[in-house]
Amino acid sequence: MNRIKFSLNNRLSLINQRSFAENIPKSTLLFIVVCIISITYFGILYSLFHTLWYHKLFCVISTLIFAYSLQDLYFEQLEKRVKQALPKTTKKLSHYYTHYKGNVIPTLMDTEEKCPEEARLYLVKIRKALISGNPGNEINALKSAFPFIWFRMLASIIFMSKEKGIGVKSDANQTNMIGRNLMKMTNILNFINVQQGYNDAELKYIQIFLYFAPFLFIFASDWINSKILIEMNLQEVYQGIKAQNIKTFIFLSANLSALFIHWMRKQQR
């Protein structure tokens, strides 16, 4: 259990860039919620089929797949919020960079106050790295710790500006190189967020449907068949081994399909 909570905390810390200790309450709550929902899921499955050993085994495997997808869905939402915050952040960076005529530290300080909370700690860490004794090594270490390639690129652009003293040119009609790159990044990120949002939403709904559709199908079938079988005094037939095997096959097919859709979504991201 501790290993699972440790893994959840590590991934949470990677996304929100907070310390391990700061994320303990949130990761513990996530662990408890996932456990409660997964145990409920297992209980429903077990009530549908549990006669043979492989029925019980499938209940366990299916619950583990469901729990993994559930916690991954939570982390996806966190990552999505960070990705949506990034273009807003780069837009403000570009504005303040021009306002301060290429002075990086004041630019970062003002942007930290105005940018979305999801991106704030990334900028704070970049600023602290720039004012450290060895900014080059610190920035490289940050790039290794950042989970998103766009934040790594942003750290490189800001470091290059600070290191080479690139500022706004005296000609006000000419846009400086750093500001231009930041605006390009903003446009690209907005486009990517829109495209990925459309593509991912469809697959996510399919994945969720695959997890819950078998319940609707089986409960509806149980109800319809029970009405028919009661008239024939054969109430127990539908609870037999063959029926439970069919239920197991339905859930197995749906869960494997949902897992494949989940893998496809991860590849797209």
Task: Describe the secondary structure blueprint for this structure.
Blueprint: H1 2-16, H2 24-48, H3 53-99, H4 104-114, H5 117-130, H6 135-145, H7 149-164, H8 177-231, H9 241-268
Helix pairs in contact: 1-2, 1-3, 2-3, 3-4, 3-8, 3-9, 4-5, 5-6, 5-7, 6-7, 7-8, 8-9
Give a brief outline of the structure.
With 269 residues, the protein is an all-alpha fold. The protein has helices at residues 2-16, 24-48, 53-99, 104-114, 117-130, 135-145, 149-164, 177-231, 241-268.
Helix share, percent: over 70%
Overall outline: elongated
Mean pLDDT: 82
Count of DSSP-assigned helices: 9
Number of strands: 0
- Name the beta content range: under 5%
Count of domains: 1
Low-confidence regions: 168-175, 232-238
Biggest sheet, in brief? none
| C-alpha termini separation | 29 Å
Task: Tell me the Rg in angstroms.
Answer: 26 Å
- Secondary-structure-based class equals mainly alpha
* Helix/strand order: HHHHHHHHH
What would you say this structure looks like, in words?
- By secondary structure, this protein is mostly helical.
- It has one domain.
- Helices cover 83% and strands 0% of the residues.
- It is built from 9 helices and no strands.
- Helix 8 (177-231) packs antiparallel against helix 9 (241-268).
- It is elongated, with a radius of gyration of 26 Å.
- The chain starts with a helix and ends with a helix.
- Mean pLDDT is 82; it is low at 168-175 and 232-238.
